[in-house]
Every structure is written in C-alpha cells, then in structure tokens.
Amino acid sequence: MAASLVSLLTAPLISAVLGGAIALVFLAGYLRRKRAAIAHIPPSATAAAPDQPKHVRPSNQAHHKKGHARPHHNAADKDAAKKHHHLDVNTLRGHTDSVTALHFSNDGANLATVCADGAVRVFRIDDTSSKSFKILRINLPAGAHPTGVAFSEGSSSVVVAAQALLGSSLYMYADVSAPPTAQNKQQGKLSPPEIKWSHQKIHGKESVLNLAAARATHGPGDGSTIIISCSEATDIKVWHGKSGKELGTVDTNQLKNNMADISPNGRFIAAAAFTADVKVWEIVYSKDSSVKEVNKVMQLMGHKSAVTSLCFAPNSEQIITASKDGSIRVWNINVRYHLDEDPKTLRVLSIPLHDSKGSVCQYDHMSISPDGKILAVTSGSTLQWLCVETGAVLDTAEKAHEGDITGIAWAPRTILNGGVPAFILGSAGVDKKVKLWLAPEAGST
C-alpha cells in the first residue's frame, strides 16, 4: 500500500520537474535572443533622442581602432552642426539654459550675455571666425534670474537686471575686461569682478523687460553712460551707469510696457506699449553735465494697432517702429517740438514676413546697423534683414535658432571676420546659443 502511494506521488513530481526544466530552457533561449537584438540596434537609433545628452548616448566608437575612420551613423546630427545659412559666422556656446539678453561693448570687442542659469558671460571677440573665445563668467547672487544686460563705461563694466522673489535688482560689475591674474592665467580664467553698486526692487515686484544704454553726448552731456530699465508695468527708470544714481522716472500710462530704447546720443527715450502710439521723452542735461529733468516731448501717432518693437537710428534723429497692423514706420523726430511741431512719418513699409497661413507676422525685436542701412528683425525663430530705405528683404534665416529668438544686437562698429572688417549682428535664443551673423549686402534684393 505504501509503495503504491509513493509511485502515485513520484510520477506527477517527475513530470512537474521535467516541465519546469523545459520551460527554463525556452526562457533562457528567448533572453539570449533578446539581448542579441538589443546589442545590434544601430547607434543612430538611440542618437535620435534629442533629450538625451551626447555623452550618455550609446555608441560603438570605442571599438574602432585608433587611426581607422569612424563610421557615420547619424547624418542628421552632423548636418545640424553645419552652418545652415551663408550669413551664419559662428556660434558662442557654453550657456546651459535659455539666453535672455545680449549687448556689445562700445568698441565691439566684447559681447555680454545673460542666461537663465543665473550667470553673466563676457566673450572677447577679436575675430568672429575664431574657433574659440576667451570667456569671463560671473555668477549672480543666489536666486537672481537675469533679464537684461548693458555695458556701462566702455567695455570695462556691465549692468545686469535680475528678477528675484521680491522684485527686480540692478547689479554693476566693474573690471569685466581686466587681464587675468598670474594664478588664474595658468587656469585660463579671469579673476571674478566685484559688484560696485546695486539697487533692489527697482520697479517694485515687476520684472525688467529690457535694459538699454547710450553715451550722453548731446548738448552738455559729458559722455557718461546713461542706462534705462523698462519694467513690465508702465514705468521706465533712468540711471547713471558709473555711479548707479537714479536720474529720473517716467510713466508711459499705456496699460503695459512692451520695451523701451534710448537714442545713441543719450537724448531721447521711446517706449513701445500695447497701444498704437509711441511716447518720446527728452533727457535734459544741465551745464555741469548732470541730468536736470526728463520731459515728455512727443507722441508718434499713425499706427492702427499695438506697437511691438522700435529702435533709434544711429543719428538719433529717426525712430523705426513695427506694429501689429502689419506696417513699419520710419519717423523723423528732429523737429521743433517746443513750437508744437509734430514728428513726421518719412516712410510706411509693409512687414514682408508671413506665416504658413498667409497672415502677417509680428516683429518681436528690431536693431539697426551702425551705418543706418540695414534693419534686423525677428519673429519667433526667424531672423530677417531689411533695407531701411525701401523695406526690401535683403535676406532671411528661417529657424535661425532652435526655438524663439530672445534678442538681437549689432556690434556698434566693424569687427574682423577672417581678418576682414565687417558689420556683425548677434542673436540669442532659448536654444542656449548665441550666434554671430554677417550683414548682407545693403544693395541686394
């Protein structure tokens, strides 16, 4: 009876063990095939993930012997690294987040940028075709997110606007072009500059939309740098670049500011807001070169919709405005406004850029070349150059950046490009890049 019971139990047990062994054999074979399939996925398939950093993307380059040509697995990546436009000169890298603003020094030899990573970078640009550039990095105080930057005294100092929890602040850093110390020179770094002056909550809790700077050369102006900060509310403040003294405040009373600019001679301030008119103020200087007052003197009326951007001509006698009504206007402000003479519209040009649906695009940023002949404009990620005189399109760079362009600025004088002097435009974008562009031929169409 006992032997019979053991026999009955042993048969199912042996069957179960054999069945489990067979299942394990099949499972092991499947896993080996799966690993082999994964191991043979071409690197181009994994490199296609844009969010994955290059240094962690799988690659079989380590298996190739030194001196042997490496196979080209991803033509798209290689092509993307090439300059996609004939005016594209160079790309300044090193930013780890969106670049929020940029500004050239008066001599054009330095370009300051501010980035959402909380740092200011000053690039030394001796020749735009260089393979590398000397960079000075300045870390802002903790929690400060920079929104604007402007050189103060020549190329020796920069003023930075930064937004924090309690509001916007201004910081002035001096000696940003100082030579490296002996110790830092060996490390290839410059000694960090110091904050010479700062102001907190300059516009209450409102953010600074942009900074603009100019040398006070009009009338009794002594050539000092005058800086304006435009808040996202309705106020604009005027500052002395070197001392940090607040020189005046104006209120646009236009619902909300869009941006503001100061004329190259430091005389006029103009503001674009979400209205169709543009208000202009004059900075009045005393005989001792100090700022006496800031008075509203003109109003540019003619657009039918909100003005999105504006800029002054190099001669400080003209203002160029772009509006949502699809037009660009060139204004003559060299009038006897104290005799109630109104500014005159010299030209009305149509915005030539249209979207895929045929609608007129909105220009976000404008900047005019130092010779006053070329107007650079942006809309989203598109960069365009126009003839100031005729409005003709000189050139267009679609997708100039991989995302929206956050700012543009011309170098105030020619810079060497391959040893040849040239007008250079800088552009910044959310793609963590700053690009340098050659000016197109002003006479081309």
From TrEMBL:
WD repeats lie at residues 92-133, 300-334. Gene3D superfamilies: YVTN repeat-like/Quinoprotein amine dehydrogenase. Residues 62-73 have a biased composition (Basic residues). Residues 43-84 are annotated as: Disordered. Keywords: Membrane, Repeat, Transmembrane, Transmembrane helix, WD repeat. The chain crosses the membrane at residues 6-31. This is Anaphase-promoting complex subunit 4 WD40 domain-containing protein. It comes from Setaria italica. The lineage of its organism: Eukaryota, Viridiplantae, Streptophyta, Embryophyta, Tracheophyta.
